[in-house]
Known about the structure:
globular
Amino acid sequence: MQNDFLWGVATSAFQLEGSPHADWASWDSILDSKPDVTNHYTLYKEDLCLLKELGVNSYRFSIEWSRIQPKENVWDDGAVAHYQDIIDILLESNIEPMVTIHHFTHPLWFIKKYPWHEDASIEKFSDFVEKIVSTIKGVKYWITFNEPYVLLLGGYLEGCMPPGIKDASLAVKALKNIFICHGMAYDKIHSRIPDAMVSVAHNMAALAPWKRWSPMDRLLAKIAKHFYNHSLLDAFLTGKMRIKFPFKSPIDVDLPIKGKLDFFGVNYYTRVHMRFNPFKKMGVELRHRDIDGYGLTDMGWEVHPYGLQKVLRYASRLNVPLIITENGIATRDDQRKIKFMKRHIDVLEKCIKDGIDVRGYFYWSLIDNYEWLQGLDARFGLYKVDFDTLKRKPTNAAAYYSYLIRSRSF
């Protein structure tokens, strides 16, 4: 194993801890009686011991904004100290921390008064970033935003995530403000930590036509591939985002992010098939089917390991190191989890041998947690959680991941 290859697991604060001050806490009734879904905020020291048990050398986690700033202009230094303690424990254990600044959730006051399509959101997020980078010590790897496109699609087009808006014009405004904030955060981090490694984590999917003989299905797959996988890469390369949709006004936005990327975080889970359906919104239907014979996950997603090779090749044109910041499967079947892991890491090994500069792999997730639109039923964890007793129990996949870390040499 390369000493500098990052083997890790990934989590997000809200999915483990909840927060009574977050927008999602009032959005989803699943959390009404369980603001701390795994009691991780209390049990974090025990959970961090699981990292040493696994043998990982890195851990990606997020800082919950609504705990740091529960009310506008009110800062909770105790919450800052809590996250600093996590970092200190990791460093003492020779585990590299990777901190995500924004992982979907916001303080409730922010989303009510300063949602992302409002220009005032930039200043408010800037204040949060300044608080974090001026007080948190010992972090080299930073993710500014996790899956910004998912945030925009869910929050501004489908309305299934806060702020629950369905307005394409506001989505474009929100997109611009979010990436202005990435550029700002990149500069703030580097002003204090010159050798910092800063990125976003971009959800990338393998995309294919439902019927290869259908011109409309092929066209939809081509458009989706450019929008979902490539347009963000182009924006980092050129500072411009250009997206064309049939019969729609093109998106044409200048973004202050050219070159503001030290590595690129790739979240990869599945392949999606595009089907033309005139009765659906914009004529698009997203479908999953089991073509490779590896089955669908408990969330109905296709298991398609070879798609990882495709998206890593796409991302490699950025000419920065790549890190797989999330990859995992929702299943209660340990053997399926093991096979998923092995197949994807086999693909990763091939990509590295083919010359793609991949520097790390983070499995999602350490323990079972709250999944945004599915609640507590999507079991991604290497450690099972009994949500009644909150006991953690290792899966066979945890032992297998430890074996892979010891045995693979990239």
